[in-house]
Amino acid sequence: MNKKIIKEMQIMTYLESIKESTNVAYGYIKGKYRVNDIGELITALSCIPDDINEIKQLIFNLIKEYEKEIMENEYE
Q1: pLDDT at 35
Q2: Which residue, among 59, 60, 48, has the nearest Cα to 14 in the 3D structure?
Q3: Cys-Cys crosslink for 27: which of 16, 32, 55, 62, Cβ 3.0 to 4.6 Å?
């Protein structure tokens, strides 16, 4: 159970990171934010694909854990 909660918290952390990066990028494009270092913005945005892959892997692992739990419960 704790492993699932940790994975769910990790997913939320990655989603929050993606949200923050995209909000800054959107604000920059719309002229709402000034970014002193464009390289920092590029770096933040370049992390998004990696974050998405991590989320996919965590979800895959959660599914496997839920399937295992269901199978164990069926045999009880």
Answers
A1: 67
A2: 48
A3: 32
